[in-house]
Model the fold of this input.
Amino acid sequence: MNPKIKKILIKSKKEVFSEVVGNNSSKLKGEGYDFLELKEYEYGEDVKNIDWVISAKLQKPYVKVFHAQKELNINLVALLNGSVHFGTDKFKQELICEICSILAFSAIKQGDAFSSYIANETLTFCTKKSKRTFSVNKMTENIFEYKSVNKKLNYKNITNSIFSHIKRRSLIFLIGDFFNVENLDLKLLSKKHEIVVIIVRDRFEENLTTLGNINLKDLENGFEYNGVVNAQALKDYKEQIKKNDHILYEHLRKCNANFTKIYTDENPISKLARLMK
Done:
């Protein structure tokens, strides 16, 4: 096994089992022990859940609603296109790999099974549903060694594939850098599943300085640029990044999706712990 992969696995497992990561807050409702809310009784509901004290006070029957005590169906989707093959501290693809590893160990810790996918033009299985450490190792290795150069993201294909492949209501993590999100549409998916988006970025991408003469290559389509980057070009680029992220954040809020941004120079464990509480 690649030493870097081994290091990611050891670090992730140690952090998950020594920190409070997991205990995912699900929107699922059903039979359980954690009280969620009271609501007016509807015909056909189980009468054993009627709160007789409240019902007597309000002169209407009210029932108790509980958090579902079910095993969560967790799906990790790593968005691996050419742009994740970049990083000043470490590659974004390596950070995505580490995040997926932490989330998978977290699922195992709380007794939930997880499945994993790699997505770009299409959605492909990475590992099948499992609660085993072996599956975490396999997923981490597959994501780390995946050839993302020259791969493009097709958000429409990805979301359609997720919708048709994942039948059961699930907690779905989408992990990628989320550039060019004009065609990202999670509205339908968020009605069926609980969506969590983890944005992975390198600070250099958002804080470019004047570079002068440069040679750039687009790792999605192979396009090369040789020329001068001046102050106006930098300003236009930063405005485009801000516009992209504004569209992304507004869309995620409308879909009621939780999200966070993690940079390549950060340890992801603290932000993931806050996200999942």
Observations:
- The domain at 3-21+73-276 is CATH 3.40.50 (Rossmann fold).
- Residues 25-33 have pLDDT under 50 and may be disordered.
- The first strand starts at residue 29 and ends at 40.
